[in-house]
Amino acid sequence: MASGGLFFSKGERGGFAENLPFMCKVVVIGAGGHGKVVADVILSAGMELLGFLDDGRSPGDLVLGYPVLGGLNDIGQYADQGCRFIIAIGSNSTRRAIASAHKVRYCTAIHPSAVIGAGVTIGEGTVVMAGAVVNPDASVGRHCILNTSCVVEHDNRLADYVHICPKAALAGTVTVGEATQIGIGSSVSNNISICAECLLGAGTVAVRDITVPGVYVGAPARLLRSRS
Ligand SMILES: CC(C)(COP(=O)(O)OP(=O)(O)OC[C@H]1O[C@@H](n2cnc3c(N)ncnc32)[C@H](O)[C@@H]1OP(=O)(O)O)[C@@H](O)C(=O)NCCC(=O)NCCS
Questions:
Q1: Of the residues 34, 111, 154, 163, which is catalytic?
Q2: Are 84 and 22 within 8 A, CB to CB?
Q3: What CATH topology corresponds to 10-109?
Q4: Which end of the chain is more exposed for a tag (fewer CB within 10 A), N or C?
C-alpha cells in the first residue's frame, strides 16, 4: 500500500482519515461542485481544511466559508508547510495529470456514514462519500472517487483514478480498469471486468466483460463510441 493509503483489518464506519500528523491541514485542489462535496467529507471526518487551490477562481473567494488560496502553481508553498492534498476534480484524466505533475503528500478521506469492510484497502488521494459501502477484501486504487451511496462489493479490484458515481453498484468480484467512470445509477454484474478508459453512462447495466475503451450506455451495455 502506497503511503497515505489505508488498510482496514476489521470493518469500520467511516468518519476518519489516515492518521495525519498533529495539526496537519488539508488543501483541496478544485473549488467547484465536487470540491465542495470533498471539503464536506474532510470536515465531517474531523480533518482540518485550510482552503482550496483552483486556477479558475480568484484568491480570497470563499467556498463553504473557506478561502481559495491560489492556483496550482502555489501547491509547493503549501506542501512546504506540511499540508496534505486531495484532488477534487471529477475528470479522471485531469486528476491523473495533476497527480503525475505534482508529487506531494495526498491524503484519503472517508465520510462518517460510509461503511468499510474488513480487509479493504483504499489508496492515497481517494475520497469516499456519504453512504458509500465498500465490502470486505475490496481494493480501491489511488485518487479514486467513491461517490454518494455507491456500492463496491466484496473482492472488487478498482485501479487508480476510477470514479464510481452516485448510486452505482458493482456486484462481487468486479474489476474496473484505470480512469474508468461508472455512471450514476449504473450496475455491474458479479465477476465482470471493465477495462481502463471507459465511461458507462447513467443507468448502464454491464452483464458482460467490457474490453474496448469507450463510452457505453443502455441495458445491457452497448458501445456508443470508442475512445478517440
Ligand atoms: C453517456 C453520456 C456520456 C453520453 O453523452 P453524449 O456523448 O453527450 O451523448 P448524447 O447526449 O449526444 O447522446 C447520444 C445518444 O446516446 C443516448 N444516450 C446518452 N446517454 C445515455 C444513457 N445514459 N443511457 C441510454 N442512452 C443514452 C442518447 O439518447 C442519444 O441517443 P440517440 O442518438 O438515439 O438520440 C452521458 O449521457 C452520460 O450518461 N453521462 C454520465 C452522467 C453521470 O453519470 N453523471 C454523474 C456525475 S457524478
A1: 154
A2: no
A3: Rossmann fold (3.40.50)
A4: C
